[in-house]
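PROTEIN DATA CARD
Card holder: VanZ family protein
Chain length: 81
Origin: Thermotomaculum hydrothermale
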Amino acid sequence: MFLHCIEYSGLTVLAYYSYLFKDIPSILLFVELFAFSDEFHQFFVPGRTFSFLDFLADFIGAILCLIVIIKYKEKIYGERN
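Structure generated from the sequence above:
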């Protein structure tokens, strides 16, 4: 579970700084669609299954990462999104 949080935190950082996404909801939507597709494809892999808890861990990792990024930017640059 913890590794899912770490992995999707990394994806969230990449999405945040990619300049493809202009706002927080679009970043979350992208990351969660990616997480869903990752879990969905496991239906077709022998010995693997879709896990809602893994999907939830991905979402929590993305949310926590965005909170850290926003707080960091507020502290360092005085910016608000």
